[in-house]
Amino acid sequence: MSKLTPVLSAHWDERDSHTLAGYQRHGGYNAMKKALAMDPDAVIQMVKDSGLRGRGGAGFPTGNKWGFIPQGDNKDHYLVVNADESEPGTCKDTPLLMANPHVLVEGVIIASYAIRAKHAFIYIRGEVTHVTRRMLQAIEDAYKAGFLGKNILGKGFDLELTLHIGAGAYICGEETALLDSLEGFRGQPRLRPPFPAIAGLYARPTVVNNVESIASVPAIVEKGAEWFASLGTEKSKGFTLYSLSGHVNNPGQFEAPLGITLRELLELAGGVRTGHRLKFWTPGGSSTPIFTDAHLDTPLDYESVSAAGSMLGTKALQIFDETTCVLRAVLRWTEFYKHESCGKCTPCREGTWWLVQILRDLENGKGSEADLAKLLDICDNLLGRSFCALGDGAASPIMSSIKYFRDEYIAHLTHGGCLFDPVASTLFASSKAGA
Amino acid sequence: MANAPQTFDANFLSRLDAIIARYPRSRSAIMPMLHLVQAREGFVTAEGIEVIAKKLDLTTAEVHAVASFYTQYRRTPAGEYHVGVCTNTLCAIMGGDAIFAGLKDHLGIENNERTADGKVSLEHIECNAACDYAPVVMVNWEFFDNQTVESATTLVDDLRAGKKPAPTRGPDSVPTFKEASEVLAGFNDGRANEGIQAGEPTLLGLKIAKGERK
Ligand SMILES: Cc1cc2nc3c(=O)[nH]c(=O)nc-3n(C[C@H](O)[C@H](O)[C@H](O)COP(=O)(O)O)c2cc1C
Ligand code: SF4
Ligand code: FES
Q1: Per-residue pLDDT tens for B145-170?
Q2: Do B141 and A14 touch (CB under 8 A)?
């Protein structure tokens, strides 16, 4: 018996899972009906009781976030869904929305009702045309069905839902940069406090939640907080999407209770690429410190991954086998952070530039062991000293790879360059080997 | 230049108004408006900036400051088919670097250039949220999954020959850059029901849970 618990993914194998009819065949929008018959505060309490934590990376309790919205303040409130999904390795929200955009729409309706928002936004990254179409269609169909617009289900609740489409900027996934972008400015992070719950979109109380967080709400309302809380671990409750990619025989999405281990997931994914062995992996995208084969049995929940020195992040498990040069991998991620740095603060703007220069030299066998200390010193100036978490993320791959693979950095120097054959790590190489 | 915005027809201008109507405050409309300019022009033109500035009561400098922040807004015309090869770490290692090098060589163009026939432009892109389908190539931001150097070469040849191949996960045929930009401006082209709902990697966990796969 596998540990898998398909809830969000339960009907993705049906050809019309993305349509209104496909969604309603399995009870879609029933949770909305149930929620709209409840007191909004009771809906917030239910989400609090479920223990649902944000699936966008930080794991903040979703119900608590909703509870921070001041009520009776006579101000407009907003719900903003973060569908920017751009953290390297992260690939869960995009297939979710392609296969079932309506579960997000239903979650948006319930969440907006709970926090008393009359206008909600979904900020989707601009590089996924087909997902955008499906979102547009789902919103259109929900309006036609009377689930959005004026006086929803005759309950006197009004809600407008706007899809806002980005244009290629990773930083707009950071929630305050996202809000600036949505207001029509360059997407740069804001100083906090004030937090979005007090002064968010248009300086009004705003909840920003990840796609998967909001999409998890209908099932909680339908099946109850106790059901959700009965899955997962003591402090990391419920089920979630784990995404396995890279050097595994069968990459893909696995919906399982929090706390499953990589060893268990690898078994489901057919193991590491045949004939190879695990070298390093990310537990939650490129911004989370890498792990090695020493962490195969670390439960993948928020607490256990932190205790082992990384972060659960987005549960984007990128698997690299022994054919991969760790320095090449880290340099490429660092180039990404340099490119995506918004330029607002010096440690990140300048630091990422220097990190790239030093890593490029090291990859080519130039420099000395002292450069490792320099890398760590720059990382030290990024970590915790940057304006937003992008800077922290940039430091993570470097610091963790030097911790586990210092010898490999040095080997580039003694060897005068890279020791790895890039062809050996490609998918083509493995398909040839398998033939 | 002063009269330039007049080159935009009434239909275009009314669609700018439709975009403004989506938001509580007009300035929020700037990004979809820029996508709509690309849908008409193939990139962000000076005239496009001007017409947006006028509509939103901003200076052209303010609009330009926003446009230049986001990589999808182009300063030079895209090809009819804008090909993006993911060279972020995971795809790069799985073959993205080889694909990108192969396409540059085959097309005789560099990053962010366009073939002389105007058909194909090429760009190396960041992680496109499809790592379980690596290596990934995007055409006008539609998914072409699990590519090889050979398959990507055939793909660009087909695009240049005017064939309209079907993305792996997307509509039945790939749209042009301008058509795709219209969707990104938030205008539904009615093709949402085309194509599969999910690829095999997306379904893997579900199928194992149902005992349909090991
Ligand atoms: C650089 C950066 C990029 C981020 N990108 C995303 C993203 O694409 N999607 C997302 O949901 N959260 C992203 N986040 C986290 C958000 O700031 C925020 O914590 C999250 O959307 C809150 O939702 P949740 O509580 O439901 O997890 C990013 C954070 C940073 C610092
Ligand atoms: S850490 Fe980087 S991305 Fe964040 S505000 Fe500073 S420069 Fe911008
Ligand atoms: S690394 Fe290429 S799609 Fe994620």
Answers
A1: 999 999 999 999 999 999 999 999 99
A2: no
